[in-house]
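Quick one - inputs below.
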Amino acid sequence: MEITKDILDGCRSGKSTSQEHLYRLLTPRLFPVCLRFAASRSEAEDYMQESWIRIFQKINNFRNEGSFEGWARRITVTTCLEGLRRRNIQFDSPANLSALQLSEDATAISGISAAELIALIQTLPAGYRTVFNLYVMEEFTHEEIARQLGISEGTSKSQLARARMLLREKVAHLHSEAKPQHAPK
Amino acid sequence: MNDSTKYNDEQLRRQLENYAEMPSDKVWSGVTAALEQKKKKRRLLFWILLLGGIASGSTVWFFAGSTYSGAVLTAQQNQEPKPAQPAAPQSKPATAAGKNPQTNTANTALAAEKSNIHSYSNSVTTAGTSAPVSGKGTKHTQNNAGRAPENIAQTPAGNTGKKDGSQHTNTGVPQLSDNGNTSAAAHTPGRSSATGKGIPESSSRQASVSAGIVADTPHPLSLTPRRTLSLSNGIPQPALLKNRFRDSTTLYKTIPAVSVKIAPFISLEASAGSVWYKRNQVPANDISSGNAQTRKSGIYAAALLRGGFSFRRYAFFSLGVGYEYFRFSNPYALTYTSVPGAGSGNLNQDLNTPSFEAYGDVNIPLPISSYNGSQTINGRLRMNTHNIFIPLDMGFSFPVLHNLHLGISGGPALHFLLKQEVYFLSEDGSKKPVSISEPSRVNVSLGIEPSLSYHIHGGLSIFASGAFRYHMLSAVKDPSIRSMPYRASGQLGVRLYLNGVRP
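Output:
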C-alpha cells in the first residue's frame, strides 16, 4: 500500500481517518527506528508517539519533494535524539582507537534475527547505542554526529568503536548460548 | 574503516531494513488524544483572539465614531460655497427681536450651535425660515428654551409659528423638509445656515465658551449616527438620534475632555484574595491515561509595580514586576494499611519513604507494611509557594459611574519560582515532610482579568477583580510528566498611580 496524495491532503486538513491510515501504513517501518534508539520497548513507544504528534503537526511543511517516509524518518530520529538528550546520555571520553579491537566477523550477525539484533542494540549503553545507530543505520558522518550530539568527532569515533566491540561480544555470547541447543545429541 | 567493518555495517543495515513491528495500541490513542488537545487549544486561542478583536474593534469604533459628526461633516460643509455676506451684522449679537431677520437667523443658528454642542437633536426654528407646518390646535414649544433663552427672546413673534391659530410643535427631533431632509441650520452649527448666512467660527466659539462649554472637543460618549439622510444638495447628513449621554448637559460637564495623548503611567498595587487551582498532571507520553488531578483552594496575595502607557485614558499597555504568594491547605486523610513489599517502619517514621501514591504533584508515601491493620490520620496537606512574576498586559477601562471604572485586561506573564514548601500537617499538629516532584523554576501563563475600580483621591484607587490564568509550560521538571495548571482567583486590592496618570 502506498502513501497517496489523498492521504497526505487528508492529514493536512486534519482528517482523523487519513491520519490513522497514514499511521497504520508507516508505523511498522518507523517503530524499529525508535526501538533501536531506546533502551526499552516502552521508551520506544514514547518516542514513537511523540514522533507522530510532530509529524501530524508539521505535515504542512512537507512539500511533496522526495519520499514522505524519509521525511517522517528524519523527524523520528530527531525526536529520539531529543528524548535521549533529555535523559542526559553520557558519552565516554575519547579513547585510543588503535587499542580497540575493530576487526569484526562479518558472518557473526548473519545467523541472528532482526528482533534479536534490535534487542542486542538496546542493551548497549545509551551513548554507544546512539552513535552506533546514527553512524551505521542512519549513515551520518562523524562530523554530523558530533554536531548533532554536541560532542567531538573523536568521542563519536571511540563511541562507535566501543559499541561495535561490545555488540560483537554480545553476538558471540548469543551464539555460544545458542550452540548447545543446536548441538547434536 | 576496514572492509570487513563496512561489510558488516551493510549486512546489519540489510538485516534490519525490512524489519517491521507495530507498537501497542496505546501509542495511537495517545497520538489522537494529544492532537485533540492541540485542536482544543487552537480553538480556545481563536476565540480569545476573536473576542479580543471584537473588543478592540468596538472600542475603536466607539471612540473614533465620536469625531465623525463633527470632523467629517464639517469638512464636507466647508466645501460648500459660502455666499458673500458682510461679516459685521452676522457677528454682531442681535439685541432686538424681529428687527433684523438675517441677524436673527444667524443668532438662531448660534443658538443651534450652542444647543448642538450638547445635542444635535435640538432643531431650530429660525426667523423667516421656519414655516409653520402643523395643523390647527398644535402647540409650538421650543425645547431649547432653557439652553439659549436669549435666542428665544430674539425670535420675532410673527415667526413663532402662529398662523391661522395653528401652532408648530418642535419636539427636538430635526425638522425634515418635504423631501425628508433636515434644515441645514439645525445641522451645521456655526458654519452656514440654510439661507447661506453663515456665522464665523469665532463667534460660535465665543458663544460656546461663554456658555462654559468647549465646543470643539468631541464628547467622549457621543455616538456615531447609525443612519444618514441627505441634504437637497446631496451632502450626507447624520440622522440625529436622541442620546441621553450626549444630550445631558450635567453629565457632559462632569466628564473631563478626552485626552488623545499617549500618557505614560506607573503604579504600585497590592491585592489579596482567594484562589482556586487545578492541575491536570498526566504522563507526558500517555495523556490518555493516568489523569491524576489536583484541585486546591487557597489564599493568594500579590504586590505589583507596573509601568506603561495609557491611550486616550481608556486603553492601556503595561509591563510589571511583582511578587505573588499562594497558600493551599487542603484536608487530606492519610491511610495506613498493611501492604506487602511497601517497606517497613512505623507510624512515627517520616513520610518521606521511597514508595508513594500520587496526589497530583505531591507524593504521599505508600502505607507501611509492618503496621498491622489500617489506620487513618487526618490532617491537611499544605503547600506554600512564593513567586516573582512579570506580567505584560493590555486592557481597557471604561467609566460606568462617577469615579467607578469597569475594566478588562489580559496578557502573558512570566513566573519565577522562588520557594515552594509542602508538608502534611496532622491533627495533632505535627508536621511530616512530603516528597514532591521537583517544580519548574520558570513558567509562562496567559491570563485575563476583569476588574471594577473606584478612584478615591489623587492617584489612589481600590479595586476588585477576578482573574483566570492558564500555565503554558509544565509545572514540574520531570520530562515524563506534563502538568499544566490553571487557576481562578478573586481579589481585592489597592492601587496607587505614582505619577498621577490613571488609565
